[in-house]
Each structure stands twice: as C-alpha cells, then as structure tokens.
Write a structure and sequence with these properties.
Blueprint: H1 6-16, E1 19-21, E2 33-35, H2 37-56, E3 61-64, E4 69-70, H3 72-77, H4 80-83, E5 85-90, E6 97-99, E7 120-123, E8 127-129, E9 139-142, H5 147-151, H6 154-161, E10 167-176, E11 191-201, H7 206-224, E12 231-235, E13 247-255, E14 258-269, H8 271-282, E15 301-302, E16 309-310, E17 313-320, H9 321-332, E18 333-337, E19 343-347, E20 358-362, H10 368-381, E21 389-391, H11 397-407, E22 411-415, H12 417-422, E23 424-429, E24 435-439, H13 440-457
Parallel strand pairs: 3-10, 20-21, 20-22
Antiparallel strand pairs: 1-2, 4-9, 5-6, 5-7, 8-9, 10-11, 11-17, 12-13, 13-14, 14-17, 15-16, 18-19, 22-23, 23-24
Helix pairs in contact: 2-9
C-alpha cells in the first residue's frame, strides 16, 4: 500500500537523505528544499528515464537547455507580465497571506478568521537585477516556466537540424514561481524543475496529436512505477483554461493530500510562436513573409504539403520533476510485518530508478580479508559506470538489509568466509527477501539483468 500520510514521506526523506528543508540550519526558507545523497540519485534517474524515452527513443525529437535568465521582452510578448498572476488575500486578524483560490469557506487557514481583504492580483515572477546598477531598466525575471526558452529558440533549432513537421523540442530545467503559499512538502515550491516538450504540428492535426500525447504520457508514468489506479485524467473546463490553451488534459496522481496534478498536456495552438512573431514585427526585427500573410519569416516552418510557411500549432506535455519524485516515493512506500513480527519499511522502487542498485555487505566488518573482498567486488560491479554500488558496513547484516530496504536498494550482496574459499556471494532480493548463492564473477550480470529488464518493460 502506498504512503497514506505526507508525514511518513517527510520523515523517511530526512532520515535517509532523500530531501532536506532548504537552509535548514538557519531555520529554513519556506518553499525551498535540498535533495540529499539519495534524493539527487532518484531525481537524476527519473530525468534520465524521461530523456531516454522522449529524446533517444524517438526520431522526431531534439533536446535543448535554454538559459534561466532571458530578455524581459520574452515575458512581455509571451503574456506573462500581464497574465501570470494569482489572486491574493490577507488576513486582517493574523496578518497571514493566502492565495484566494486556496481559502475555503472564506476563512483564514491559519486562524479561521473571516476578516479577509478583497482578492488582488499578484505576479508570481521573481525579479532580479542584471548588471552593476539596479535601476528601473536593469531587471530581468527568473523564468517561471521552461517553455519560452524553447519557443525563442524555435528557428535556431529548425535551422540547425533541418527538422520538418511534426517534431518536438525537449528540455529539463529549473523554473521559479513566487508562490504566495507554498505547501505540501515538495509538491508546491518556489524553485522547481520541469520536464517539458513543445511538439510542433500542422494546424488541423493538433487535436489528434494532443490525444496521442495524453496516452503516451499516461503510459510512461505507469512504466516508471505508478499504479494506473492511482492516476486519472482531468479534462480542464473551458472556463479554467490558461490564456494560451485550446484544450488541456491534466494527469492527476492520488497523493496522500488527495488527487493533484503531476503533469499537464496542453494544446497551445500557435499562441506562443505567433506572439513572438508579432513581437519581432513590433520591434522591426523581421519582415513579413509575403503581403498575403500576417506571419513573419522568423518563427515559421514550411507546411509539409504546400511548402508554404506556416506558424505551427504546439502540443505541450509538461511534468514536474519534484512532483514525480514525490509520487514515486509515495507509490513505492510500504510498511509490513515480517514473519518474526518486526515491522519492515520498504521502498519498492523500480530497480531502474532506485538510487542505489546494489549494496555490498561484509559478514564481519573487522575481518580484513572479507573487507578487501567486499571492496574488490564493489569496484567490479560499478566499473562500467552503469549503476551506483555502495559498500555498507554501518551495522550488522540485519540492520544493513533493513536500511537498504528502506531506501529502495534492489539487491544486497553479502561477502562471508565461504566467499574466501569458493568465490561465491549471497544475493538478497529486496522485494521477496529471498537469497541465492552466486559466483562473484556472475553477480554483475545477474544485477544488470534485473535492472535492464525494467528498462525493457518501460
């Protein structure tokens, strides 16, 4: 059974080094978190799985890593300066501040008072100074989304790769939103990471591609380890759509806090490329393609059939890395009672995304010959760089197994005195707790098979 409370996950994450509160020794900074030794491995494995599925395994995708700081005009013509706002209210009783759409029954969530201010717009973009003088003309924004970095590089990518429709540009990167009330651990934070695709298609083919991407993204999350029963689709009503969206379908996951969005797949039409094309024209940076079109040469691409320049429509699958980490931890978390009556906490993560793939454990940690054999085996297992393997000597065998069950390590290999005689080791499986004896020189292939089989299923 997945985690039933957020407290279970928060406790595990701090205790085992997945996620820490940001700036913790100084009392923290609300809405910021640091990924610890195991958290960064899990996060990187999720991102690598996403990149492999969407860039390496497709013939219609290119990658990009755009700058966080961008010209302020990008956010003017994208509409963010005008529309990227949340309604904000203040409690006159306790002086706390809330997003108006999060306030239930008109009551302050902190003190319960109904003495609230009228909602007023609050732009969520972080400002920062650019250059040595911080005056009114020297500021920029930390990007609130990664999408615009793709749109302003559209022509660069097309010119460099000679891509034709349909094709996509994928990016993983940080984004920043000055959330009024960050909450629920890493679910809603001020600094987060997105895995985002802008997929460019012919107008008229956008609805079919939108439906196809919804199914593709739903399938990917299940192959990564999320139960289909804990995922559902939410078709955003017309009156709730973002200003750029023709249609949006959100993938919701059943977190301990309830059903919440883990990814959104939007049909952005030609809004963004069209907006930046108009921006280019307003600034006199490009010329019209012909007297018969309002499109500009800067951000168009030839139609596959007519070869005339068009502004393509865009399908955008956008997933939160941090929300993905949280969902996968929740899904994998399990507490059970072992046959001897002891409680066992285990993270049943897919081996392909587990932070540690194998732990090598000495039966006797003060026996030099066993320790040497352990370290030799560890070096052999991780020699190809395909997996992270650790030497574990922080407790007895039982404690070592419990520790690695709790952090999701699929395999523990125990080196004992028999190893010194016949070069065999005991391999313990995390999920079944069964143990087998293998020759040391077969251990790598055995573990690698267990990990790569999950790749094949994905």
């Amino acid at each position: 059974m997945p985690a039933t409370t957020m407290e279970q996950l928060v406790s595990l994450c701090k205790r085992r080094g997945f996620i820490f509160a940001g700036s913790d020794i100084y009392g923290g900074l609300q809405g910021t978190y640091d990924y610890g030794p195991l958290g960064v491995e899990l996060k990187n494995n999720i991102k690598q799985a996403w990149w492999r599925a969407n860039v390496y395994e497709r013939d219609d995708m290119e990658g990009l890593d755009a700058a966080i700081l961008m010209n302020r005009l990008v956010w003017k013509y994208s509409g963010h300066e005008e529309t990227f706002v949340d309604p904000m209210v203040d409690c006159r009783q306790c002086q706390s501040r809330w997003r108006a759409d999060h306030v239930k029954n008109g009551k302050c969530e902190k003190c319960g008072s109904t003495n609230l201010t009228e909602p007023r717009p609050f732009n969520m973009m972080f400002k920062t100074a650019v250059g040595p003088v911080a005056d009114g003309d020297s500021f920029a924004y930390l990007r609130p989304e990664t999408a615009q970095g793709i749109f302003v590089n559209f022509k660069n990518v097309v010119d460099a790769t000679s891509r034709r429709l349909p094709f996509g540009i994928a990016q993983i990167g940080k984004a920043f939103r000055n959330e009024i009330t960050p909450r629920n651990f890493v679910f809603r934070v001020r600094e987060f990471e997105q895995m985002e695709i802008e997929y460019f298609v012919r107008p008229g083919e956008d609805e079919a591609w939108h439906a196809r991407w919804v199914e593709d993204r739903l399938h990917w999350w299940t192959t990564l380890g999320l139960s289909r029963d804990n995922l559902k689709l939410y078709h955003v009503p017309a009156d709730e759509l973002a200003h750029y969206s023709k249609a949006t379908v959100d993938i919701f996951y059943k977190y301990p806090i309830g059903w919440e969005e883990i990814e959104g797949i939007a049909n952005r039409t030609d809004y963004d490329l069209g907006s930046h094309s108009r921006g280019q024209a307003d600034l006199g940076l490009t010329a019209k393609v012909s007297p018969n079109t309002d499109s500009t040469a800067k951000l168009t691409i030839p139609d596959p059939e007519t070869q005339k320049p068009i502004v393509p429509y865009v399908i955008e699958p956008s997933a939160g890395v941090d929300r993905g980490v949280l969902a996968l931890l929740c899904e994998a978390y399990e507490e059970e009672i072992k046959p001897n009556g002891e409680k066992r906490t285990v993270l049943r993560l897919k081996p392909s995304i587990a932070p540690i793939k194998a732990a090598v454990v000495p039966l006797k940690r003060n026996a030099p010959e066993i320790v040497d054999a352990c370290k030799s085996l560890k070096r052999a297992l991780q020699s190809t760089g395909e997996m992270r393997v650790v030497y574990e000597d922080t407790g007895n065998i039982g404690k070592a197994y419990s520790r690695h069950d709790e952090v999701g390590t699929p395999y523990c290999l125990t080196v004992d005195f028999q190893t010194l005689e016949d070069k065999t080791v005991t391999v313990r499986d995390r999920d079944t707790m069964t143990q087998i004896r293998l020759p040391m020189d077969e251990a790598y292939d055995y573990i690698r098979k267990g990990i790569t089989e999950t790749f094949a299923r994905e």
